[in-house]
Amino acid sequence: MKEILTNRGSVRDYSEKQVSDELLEELLSEAAQSSNTGNMQTYSVVVTRNEEMKKRLAPLHFNQRMITGAPVVLTFCADYNLFTRWCKERNAEPGYDNFLSFYCATIDATIWAQTFCVAAEAAGLGICYLGTTTYNAEEIAEVLGLPSLVLPVTTITVGYPADAPKVSDRLPVKSLIHYEKYEEKDIDEAFSAKEALPEMQQYVKENNKETLAQVFTDIRYTKKNNEFFGDKLWETIKKKF
Questions:
Q1: How high is the pLDDT of residue 6?
Q2: N or C: which end of the chain has fewer CB within 10 A?
């Protein structure tokens, strides 16, 4: 398990080997034993295998090749629909159409998703998270037919890797750990190794920037885009919850 965790990398290219329904359901079932708020399990997942459905989802994920290239696409959702319906059918008055409920369900859906990913990688599969789910949550919800109180949180592509994935670079963990109280960490100690990576230096060069930080602030995750997609997501949350 240690080797799986420390040597993992995102998989963007998959072989043609299919992931069986039995294996997929087994991994999802095992992962569903994860901790969750109040043991209410207010989450769900939509499994997409159909090629036409993948093509409909692809532009909502900025046409990243993993959507159509992976045998399985999993959309994990914050889901208070099932639990709310249960309450109503058992003569209980639910009060879960609010932001706090969405937030808790989002945490729980993410825990389930990440536990699934660890189990999947241990079984020899490869995965890739797609952060684009938060950018187009409303449109994804429409394609997948999600009712009120259900909203997509994250999307994960799953399949057998075409090649061994490159180990993902990470900040030194001591820059992320705080004991007893938060303390300001040394920036050079935290980011120098990442900045020195050849691929990161290439990003700086090809984007005509002075620093890697500018690639993030000016190109990849700009204030303008963050505010636009943030406002869009907030409106979607209010519609659904």
A1: 78
A2: N
